[in-house]
Amino acid sequence: MLDDAGRILTEVADFVCGYPLFFTLIGGGLMLLIYSRFISIRRIPQAIKTLRQSKATGHGEISSAQALASAIAATVGMGNIAGVAIALAMGGPGAIFWMWVSALVGMSTKYHEGVLAVKYRSYDQQGRPLGGPMHIIRNALSSRWLPLASLFAVAGMFGTLCIINANQLTEATVSTISNFTQIENPLLVKMVIGIAIASIVTLVVVGGVKRIATVATVLVPFMVGAYFLLVLIIVAIHITEAPAAIRSIVSEAFSLRAGWGALIGIAIIGARRAALVNDAGVGTASIMHGTSANRQPVREGLVAMLGPAIDSGFVCTLTALALILCGDLTATSPDGTNRGLSMAMNAFGGAIPGGQYMLMVIVACFAISSMFSYSFYGSRCASYLFGRRGEKYYVAFFIATLVIFAVIPLNAAVGLCDLFYALMAIPNMIMLIRLRKHVKAESDAYFNT
Hints:
Layout: H1 2-16, H2 19-35, H3 39-42, H4 44-52, H5 64-75, H6 82-91, H7 94-119, E1 122-123, E2 129-130, H8 133-140, H9 146-159, H10 163-178, H11 186-205, H12 208-237, H13 242-251, H14 260-278, H15 284-289, H16 297-304, H17 306-326, H18 337-351, H19 355-407, H20 411-434, H21 436-447
Antiparallel strand pairs: 1-2
């Protein structure tokens, strides 16, 4: 009975998180991109300038730059490595081009989320700013839309549980340890690793959003910079092959050798992977950006839109270059994140002596940093539904799940979490499309003064 229920749940989640979620995020994002007259492309220089000038000047908990770092800490995770490996295995180098296109679409979505997060945030009795789709819906739309706010909050509590990160980080660590010694009791080792992960996360998240932002501001530049240097070494070793690798990304994106159907399939693979990596349209980033001390919604939107450029654009491109240059793209099956990660570790290990262990350290940073921010997202969803006390209980629940999901099989649990992920995107995209005119009015007023 339980096996059948788990199988059905997995099938439902696979369907909902497939093309329906893809068209919700990409289709809705494309609509916002066109409606905003490609603001996420036209205003990139101004966004970078705004980020450099970002300081906590208003009433909030963190600066815009800290909010961006914390949001990136959530999205730059295993998907930027394993997800790219799977995209390459399924769609070839051309899929990466469509990840870039999806990143541009996602930037427009994140811009709208950032603007609305500041314009329509709430404040609790202690004066804390509260952001996120649930507060935007409550403050900007009529009461008949409140069920969407509750739907997002419920889905957010479960969709932000770091099930895959906890499990795959544990599996990768066990695999690395097994290279040096025989593991007699894998279950015990996994539990110890899970407790270690939970302990690290606890030290950060109990300090609230300020500590999360402080750690993210240091950790994100370090882990992205370290990853860049690692890939730079690989590119230097294969420098004569690098131009061909870059050309293959563009040329195979429009290849008609296998027909129009294959071309469309490659585009969907790349765009779908990027959408699932950068979280644009899911609504979580607006929870973080809503806590910013920035008083100007458009400035927050400009900072927020840089997120997809960094994770789906820059970090995913680094992974793609490394794997195209020295990876075996035929060795990975699209049936699991762990195999995508194994493909990446084999490629880095083959290119650089000890490269797989350097990558493992970076992967650990990617995975754990995601846990910091996602615990905050879930706790704010719990706070919306149950008040400040619910927020505290949720944090304890979140930390406990890190140990649990490091040890147990996860097919049904991952399916359930993915389903909630989709249920976050639906109300958020409805809200963004309904309020697109509000964003346009704010943008016109800001840029025309």
